[in-house]
C-alpha cells in the first residue's frame, strides 16, 4: 500500500513588511527547527521577492516534500504569510502527527520573522526601562 500525500497550509498575518519578512524567509537559519529533529532545509528563491520554494531534504521520516511560502502585503504595512507544503510519510499512519507538528513549526517560524523584523534597531536591547549606562 502506498502512503497518501499529506498537505499542510498555514496562513498567518504578521506586522512586519513584505521586504523584511522576505529577507528572513530566504535564509534557512531563520526558520524554526522542529524539536527533536535535525532538519536539512533548502530554500530556493523563485525570482519573485514575495515567493520561496523550500524542501525538507532530511531529518523527518518523510519523502517527496515540497513547500512554498507566499508573502502578501496586507496594505497596512504588514504581511500575510501563507505556507503550503506536501509530503508522503515513510511510516504508515504518521501523516496526521507530522502535519500537526509541521503546522506548529510554521506558525512559530512566521512569529519569529515578525519578532525579529519588528524589532526597532534604534532601541537598546534589554529589559524595558533598563538604563543602558548601568
Question: What do these coordinates show?
Answer:
By secondary structure, this protein is α+β, with helices and mostly antiparallel strands. It is built from two helices and five strands. It has helices at 18-25, 95-118; strands at residues 6-14, 40-45, 51-58, 62-73, 79-89. A five-stranded antiparallel β-sheet has the order 1-5-4-3-2. The chain starts with 5 loop residues before the first strand and ends in a 16-residue tail after the last helix. Residues 120-134 have low confidence and may be disordered.
The class by helix and strand makeup works out as alpha+beta
- Are there runs of 5+ residues with pLDDT below 50, and where? 120-134
Describe the main β-sheet briefly. 5 strands, antiparallel
Number of helices: 2
Task: State which percent range the strand residues make up.
Answer: 25-35%
Output mean pLDDT: 86
Indicate the overall shape. Answer: elongated
Helical amount? 10-25%
Number of strands: 5
User: How far is it from the N-terminal to the C-terminal residue, by CA?
Assistant: 66 Å
Using only C-alpha atoms, the radius of gyration works out to: 17 Å
Task: Please write the string of helix (H) and strand (E) elements.
Answer: EHEEEEH
The strand line-up of the biggest sheet is 1-5-4-3-2
